[in-house]
């Protein structure tokens, strides 16, 4: 095996990847070749085994979070270290790792170069697919329930989209922290999924007013905290479902951006709104490693279950995006090069 400071040649190679050349619908995801450079100092080249699909990828594709075109999307992956740049420590060629991907080339590719500061070793007992499926959403569930609003035993948590990939993990982690979890879902099938994830109560928001139902389930008090990745369609109901001095953690806006909040609609007083971004809660390698250590240990020990809803060939990333946008899946979606 090459030493840990092994460096491949400076030759730029072409790999197969899914590329966005124009902003728009899923059809803008095209499969072709993309140049992958050798890793420079402090960088790692990964042979991608699996890449996670996230709503943020869709938001970038449609232009909600614009970036320079063309680009390869994807924020997370797992795979084997193929080469490392000078000065890299902590990982070596041949290691199974998972990584956040914030560079110009995302994870929808056969290979990707990332900063070693974004890479974490995958422990024994956790597979490559599990690692890719849990990394970004699992880290998010960790800081959302541990830092944005530190959930305490006995508190009541409301999780929107509790049958989705992050919703399932939020439900499980909030239960680990001792909370009572109320989930919202759209269908009877998704209610079963949310209950299987550990939700104590489930509200079908397509059939009842979720805010009124949440207040009824809390004896009129309201919930302590709401984890909301939906945004536009739920924010007014969040205010009505919240207890006095409760907290809304708004971590996504899948139903569209919130352009205004009518505070008069809120029944409780003095609500607190937190709008977290992952770089602020994984600001250092030490913070990343600490959260990842907890996360992978939970997976290995069976404390949380990673549900992979669907796996797609890398060339079918457009199908994966369409399915995610239509809410046609539950659990995590993966692309397999």
From TrEMBL:
Domain of life: Bacteria
A GO molecular-function annotation: quinone reductase (NADPH) activity
Keyword Cytoplasm in record: no
Tagged with keyword Nucleotide-binding: no
Family matches, as SUPFAM superfamilies: GroES-like (SSF50129), NAD(P)-binding Rossmann-fold domains (SSF51735)
Any single Pfam family the record assigns to this protein: ADH_zinc_N
Domain Enoyl reductase (ER) residues, every copy: 24-335
Alphabetically ordered keywords of this record: NADP, Oxidoreductase
Gene Ontology cellular component list: cytosol
Protein name in UniProt: NADPH2:quinone reductase
């Amino acid at each position: 095996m090459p030493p840990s400071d092994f460096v491949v040649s400076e030759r730029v190679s072409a790999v197969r990847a899914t590329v966005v050349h124009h902003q728009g619908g899923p059809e803008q995801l095209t499969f072709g070749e993309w140049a992958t450079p050798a890793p420079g100092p402090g960088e790692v080249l990964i042979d991608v085994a699996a890449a996670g699909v996230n709503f943020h990828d869709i938001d970038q594709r449609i232009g909600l979070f614009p970036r320079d075109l063309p680009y390869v999307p994807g924020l997370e992956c797992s795979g084997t270290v193929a080469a490392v740049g000078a000065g890299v420590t902590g990982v070596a060629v041949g290691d199974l790792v998972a990584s956040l991907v914030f560079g110009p080339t995302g994870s929808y590719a056969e290979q990707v170069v990332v900063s070693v500061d974004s890479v974490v070793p995958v422990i024994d007992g956790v597979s490559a697919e599990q690692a890719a499926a849990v990394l970004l959403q699992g880290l998010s569930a960790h800081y959302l329930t541990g830092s944005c609003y530190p959930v305490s035993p006995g508190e009541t948590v409301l999780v929107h989209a509790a049958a989705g990939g992050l919703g399932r993990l939020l439900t499980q982690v909030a239960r680990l922290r001792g909370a009572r979890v109320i989930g919202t879902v759209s269908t009877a099938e998704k209610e079963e999924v949310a209950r299987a994830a550990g939700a104590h109560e489930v509200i079908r928001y397509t059939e009842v007013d979720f805010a009124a139902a949440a207040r009824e389930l809390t004896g009129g008090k309201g919930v302590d905290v709401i984890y909301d990745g939906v945004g536009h369609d739920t924010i007014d109901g969040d205010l009505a479902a919240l207890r006095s001095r409760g907290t809304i953690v708004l971590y996504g806006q899948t139903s569209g951006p919130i352009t205004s909040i009518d505070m008069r609609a809120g029944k409780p007083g003095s609500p607190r709104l937190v709008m977290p971004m992952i770089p602020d809660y994984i600001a250092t390698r030490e913070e990343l490693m600490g959260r990842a250590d907890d996360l992978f240990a939970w997976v290995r020990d069976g404390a949380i279950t990673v549900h992979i809803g669907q796996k797609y060939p890398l060339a079918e990333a457009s199908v994966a995006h369409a399915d995610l946008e239509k809410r046609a899946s539950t659990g995590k979606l993966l692309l397999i090069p």
